[in-house]
Amino acid sequence: SPNLTTCHATSSQNADTPHRSSHELNCCPASPDSGEPIIKDFQAPTPSSASPVRVRRPAHNVARDKEYLAKYNKAVAIMKRFPPDHPHSWHRQSQIHCIYCNGAYNQASADGAADVPFMVHGSWLFFPFHRFYVYFHERTLGKLIGDDTFALPYWNYDSPDGMPIPDIYMKGELHDEKRATRHLPPAPVAIDYTPDKLDDTGYVEPPAAEQAAINLALLYQHMVSGASKPELFMGCKLRPGEGGACFGPGTVEAAPHNSVHLWVGNTELPEYEDMGTIYAAARDPVFYAHHANLDRLWALWRRLHGYRGSRPEFDDPQWLDSHFYFYDENADLVRVRVRDAIDMDRLGYAYEEVDLPWLDARP
Ligand code: C2O
Q: What is the ipTM score, two decimals?
């Protein structure tokens, strides 16, 4: 778990997305003027008519829902107008990623001596951390427009129709200029995209239908055949006191997660901003749709491999009691534990079901 009092400058370099360059950065919040922050323990929302389920839909299917798009754009516009230091500002929402994924906190340790950075990538903290990141972002957007049914869309790139960057992210508040121009719609995402393709200037994307088939086969491998055990899917079992020695992304974290980040980011920029580098990725609104889909893939993996309800992948207190801190929709600081993330059904949101063509894409 992170020690909140240790936020410090860090480097944009990270193990999973190698860059041509890196720089020093400071993504810490402005220090609070008065004493210890008040921290609440996470409470799952109680299902009632007062807190209906939020249904996340495929982003390419909401393009015609004008009312929904107006709400989503309005909520993002409000976030962008908050003073940068406010926990609900677009700026602070995106800095969460830099803090937890570039290692701005040190780990908390029983004896108070650890100076090992706390980082969630490449480990079994990856899925639980990002589940809560998207969860609080979504609830905050909803709160800002007074809609407690508001749900983020998911980037359904595991289905051929959903493979390009969704059109709704190409305009208005959801647009981001810092993306690879040759990867704009209608180009289908390349889930097999790797840094060597990125460096090979002669690399030519295969025709769309071929790329779609490659994507589905790789999803089958990373969700089914190559991910039969939680050790393979969830990533390295990071223990307190361990740093980069335990860096090992699970199948889906490697691809589509890393590959889609690198594919979207602008390769002309030094660190493939925005999406291609951790410190800047969450500045691009499509980040949240990408991570909603990864969160959905986690839920689907659990279903496919027999993890029902609150049955955890690992019955290990060092994992289950690891925690993170987020500001909730009321701007209260909340401590969430990995164990709070396991049972998605308790969190008040759901994914609209769609066909899973990759299930039949056994190579
Ligand atoms: Cu913390 Cu897509 O990454």
A: 0.99
- Is ligand 1 within 6 A of the CB of residue 131? no
Domain holding 44: CATH number? 1.10.1280.10
CA of 251 to the centre of ligand 1 (A): 14
Nearest CA to ligand 1 atom 3: 278
Range of the domain at 215: 32-358
Contacts of 320 (CB under 8 A, 6+ apart): 312, 314, 337, 338, 339
Q: How far is the CA of 97 from the centre of ligand 1 (A)?
A: 7
Domain assignment present for 104: yes
- For the Cβ of 101 lying below 6 angstroms from any atom of ligand 1, the answer is yes
Please give the tally of structural domains in the chain: 1
| Atom nearest to 257 CA in ligand 1 | 2
Q: Is 14 within the bounds of a domain?
A: no
Give the CA distances from residue 111 to residues 108, 114, 176, 240, 321, in Å, rounded to whole numbers and listed in that order.
9, 8, 44, 12, 17
What is the tens place of the pLDDT at every residue in 280-309?
Answer: 999 999 999 999 999 999 999 999 999 999
Q: Is residue 220 part of a domain?
A: yes
